[in-house]
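Pipeline run #58 for the internal structure catalog. This entry was flagged by the ingest filter as a single-chain record with no existing model, so it goes straight to prediction. Upstream metadata was stripped on purpose; only the residue string is passed forward. Reviewer on rotation: M.T. Logging verbosity set to normal.
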Amino acid sequence: MAVARCMAVTGAPEPGRQLSVTDLISLLTRASRAWDKYDKDRNGSLSLKECEEIFNSAEITQAFESLTNMSHRAYTSRDLEPYFKHADKDSSGTLSRTEFLALYLAIMGDRVKRNPLLLAEALLGFIDKDKNGVLEGKELKGLLLILGFAPALLLPIPDFVRLEHRPILKRLGRVLEGSGDRGSDGKAKKG
């Protein structure tokens, strides 16, 4: 399993802390609580449509982003269907709470495996102390140190030297996740 840097459940950054078993339990607990809200017919199982609603809910988005410092993406029924079928162990066409939680972990884990830039996004999010999407001065120095460039300690990097990391990572992430950067004609945009 990939190691991800994370933020505490409260959303307060704790740079350097690894995603712990407690964090995973917290993530699953939040997903389980959201289950109660999105099992609208109260039959103890979720349909594919209900899974789509819960995956795109504010509760799941906030839990995922606060624990991983990665942006959450929207999921369609089409995105979820292969995972849904695999998680539906009893072939009922719906997911029990346990099957849903297994589905949730599988999708989040697969997303990180398919797009290693998500870990880069999480790391840059922790280095970006003021969370403005821009690495400046000392933040850039911190990045260089993490990348193994020890002489960065000796470099004076003024605050006007800036690197806007969010747009770069989002664009690369879209390409890696398959959506690309396409115009209305379906062709890749330039620039």
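catalog note: Residues 68 and 115 are 14 Å apart (CA to CA).
catalog note: The chain is about 50% helix and 10% strand.
status: ready for reviewer M.T.
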